[in-house]
Design a protein that fits this description.
This protein has 2 helices and 9 strands, in the order E-E-E-E-E-E-E-E-H-H-E. With about 120 residues, the chain is mainly β.
């Protein structure tokens, strides 16, 4: 469960390290985001030679959350950190980077983020 001003770890090789959520995309005045939701965030720490710079606004998709996410079979999936991947365009759902670090949730495949799932190290 991610809300405004939550700090996310960036799990790709775009050059960003941390980002802060400033908007959760969805229907109406949505306040909370879960795995697979698209958010707008501001990069707080980044490499100077990276694709994204510090203080840049980016769109990102959540791939890991610390709060347990209930699945249809009744099980829960929970990760060690809150992480996101920077995406180019929310309509295309393609990542900006070329590598994804760490595990991702299986829910991303159902939501159409097939490229992110195929680049990930592990899918839970």
């Amino acid at each position: 469960m991610i809300q405004l001003r939550s700090i996310l770890t960036v799990a790709d090789n775009t050059g960003a390290h941390y980002m802060s959520v400033i908007q959760v995309h969805g229907r109406g005045n949505k306040k909370l985001a879960f795995i697979g939701d698209i958010v707008t965030a501001v990069v707080k720490k980044a490499d100077p030679e990276g694709m994204v710079k510090k203080h840049e606004k980016v769109k990102a998709v959540l791939i890991r959350t610390r709060k347990g996410n209930r699945r249809k079979d009744g099980s829960y999936i929970r990760f060690d950190d809150n992480a996101a991947v920077v995406i180019d365009n929310p309509k295309d759902k393609n990542p900006k980077g070329t590598r994804i670090f760490g595990p991702v949730g299986r829910e991303l495949k159902d939501l159409g983020f097939n490229k992110i799932v195929s680049m990930a190290e592990e899918v839970y």
